Amino acid sequence: MHFSERIKALQASPIRRLIPYxxxxxxxxxxxYHLNIGQPDIKTPKEYFEAIRNFKAETIxxxxxxxxxxxxxxxxxxxxxxxxxYAPGDICVTNGGSEAxxxxxxxxxxxxxxxxxxxxxxxxxNAFAETALAHVVPIPTRAEEGFHLPPRRVIxxxxxxxxxxxxxxxxxxxxxxxxxxAELEMLAGLAKKYGLYLIADEVYRExxxxxxxxxxxxxxxxxxxxxxxxxxxxVIMIDSISKRYSACGARIGCLAIKNEAFIAQTLKLCQxxxxxxxxxxxxxxxxxxxxxKQYLEDVNREYRAxxxxxxxxxxxxxxxxxxxxxxxxxxxxxxxxxxxxxxIIWMLQNFDxxxxxMMGAPGSGFYAVPNRGRNEIRLxxxxxxxxLVKAAAILxxxxxxxxxxxxAIQA
Amino acid sequence: MHFSERIKALQASPIRRLIPYxxxxxxxxxxxYHLNIGQPDIKTPKEYFEAIRNFKAETIxxxxxxxxxxxxxxxxxxxxxxxxxYAPGDICVTNGGSEAxxxxxxxxxxxxxxxxxxxxxxxxxNAFAETALAHVVPIPTRAEEGFHLPPRRVIxxxxxxxxxxxxxxxxxxxxxxxxxxAELEMLAGLAKKYGLYLIADEVYRExxxxxxxxxxxxxxxxxxxxxxxxxxxxVIMIDSISKRYSACGARIGCLAIKNEAFIAQTLKLCQxxxxxxxxxxxxxxxxxxxxxKQYLEDVNREYRAxxxxxxxxxxxxxxxxxxxxxxxxxxxxxxxxxxxxxxIIWMLQNFDxxxxxMMGAPGSGFYAVPNRGRNEIRLxxxxxxxxLVKAAAILxxxxxxxxxxxxAIQA
Lengths: 411, 411
Prior knowledge:
Two copies of one chain form a homodimer. By secondary structure, the first copy, chain A, is α/β, with parallel strands linked by helices. The first copy, chain A, folds into two domains: 5-43 and 294-401, Alpha-Beta Complex (Aspartate Aminotransferase, domain 1); 46-291, Type I PLP-dependent aspartate aminotransferase-like (Major domain) (Aspartate Aminotransferase, domain 2, 3-Layer(aba) Sandwich), CATH 3.40.640. Chain A is 37% helix and 15% strand. A seven-stranded mixed sheet of chain A has the order 2-8-7-6-5-3-4, sandwiched between helices. A three-stranded antiparallel sheet of chain A has the order 9-12-11. The first copy, chain A, has a two-stranded parallel ribbon with strand order 1-10. The first copy, chain A, is globular. Chain A starts with a helix and ends in a 10-residue tail after the last helix. In chain A, 54% of the residues are buried. The model of chain A is unreliable at 213-217 (pLDDT under 50). At the A-B interface, α1, α3, α5, α6 and α9 of A face α1, α3, α5, α6 and α9 of B.
């Protein structure tokens, strides 16, 4: 039977394709510490469950395609608390940040159009671009520079008549890097000069931590692309409750922009898929309206402590290169191995410390350029500190024992 | 700012764009009987709410991209009760039937590819095709023939080297027509001869009713495309709990096919959007596992009575042409008016009977060919019988009073 060229060209998720090896390891009785996916162990606030349990209607009906008015009102209030002035009418509720990204690409890209994204990047950006027959053009960054953006002229050289947007993930998945205000101003200048959109993936906005001696400084406040007044009509904000409220499985996100025409175009696509889950929107409304500041502060403190713990442990492993990340819950580290995907499979199949092993995500999955990131690994600090210490000790022992160990990493 | 050609070309939902007129009418104190959208008033089974209220995990985590194993198991059991042999591995859980349709188009169509669909058809088919840059090629049908398919040679003439699939909605939205076994066999023959897929939208499968003197006969059992053994690897089943369990806002559907390679390609897209709502899948599992046969029988009996009531009332309106539909919960009727969209707006703005008016969906929204269906209206019998009788009486009075009334409809 026939398959489309577009689906044949699409790569399977580089994070999810190693799951069978982990299943096999567990089936053999090995304990696996999962630092490979961004699924936190943090509890979802009880307000979510209470609102859903208290839902009174007897028919689960369609709701507005743009999203429940009370949810959009609550999201607007949240943005205002960050000094980002989105009104309820500027917001479309989506099936997670994923659908918001897919919608944004459809609204702005025709086949052959291009989106600039700092590399390494979240692998699914590629899937959303390619299904729309648009292409990701990578902006190179380096572990040694904390994955910050290269100078303006490097980015400017990548812009063509087909460039439609620059996508900015801050705090970044997979690197944990937080863009500085100066970096965002530089991108805003390019967007204005070349008539581009800025797609802002800020789903980790709540998760920035103090950091010394690196760009972004020690405790600088987070700068959102939503803070830049003169590009408001061209900033497409992508957001999600998945990480903020540890509700990944709720699949509630949003797209927001100060641009009525853009919302009108987006709504055509929203209407085609009718609406987002009614009950999940009820739960999300409660999360936005009622979750205490204390919850978010506690979660931030917990992730910060985990980052410090994991970073310190990684620094103890000879040959590992990484900067202390300022946000999200990921560390992208260079390992002294020939190929991190082979190394991860080897750990699952052939290595354990007292019956335990660990798993990260291979770095190459976050690069569009072939062979880049082959000795990098993304580690998600989504487990408690005790587990992270054990996982890092296993990683250290595995690096020492791995047959494909390198003596030095080429920069 | 720039918008893609694809989004500019996309029409806003013809059903939803009249909503502001209804809002305005209600704001002026008019009561509006809504026969314009397929949102039933039937209660969602209590098993859905119970399962969600009893959910125990404290973190709403991602689940498998293909769908919860227990839900796919339950859906498989449901199909087996219909003698359709889908195994859990043949099924992908989706965000409603809508996402299943969008996935199917992406997996089989490249830009310029074509999908044959009997016209009139559900307007969003066009949106899913056009966002993938594929095109709907309409197969003409007529109200006077109960909207059944034309002879094989008429369809065969529409097939080109770019044709990828024939999409079959049975029972049909908007016409209520149920395909006969002979019609499906004819399509299966064409699919085999020309190497096409058959996309089967059977979300109204539970809703077929006895009917005399018309193709399909009186109480013939429903034939599913899933019953045809020799096209199993090319039938893409699209399904949903929205209508079956009156849970439109749950946004749980599925795509099923006996074709491992097809499921593997579809999974690449499912993985990109991570997963479908965890709690909604828990609720849907309970619906499939626990809803009594009695519930479905009661709902079927209720819709059948509503169909009979509405059909009888429509037959009392001079100049109205419609056949008694055998399924779903829609009647597509020809009215003696110049333009049903103008007529509906006129009813909302300028007409009432004791402060009450009614609303249907304009027929032209279900046609791809310009100017077709202009005097047709789709009426959804989603209200109780008393309300339907009142709505039909209002329609009768409105047709008599309408300035754009036609004395005879051209066939």
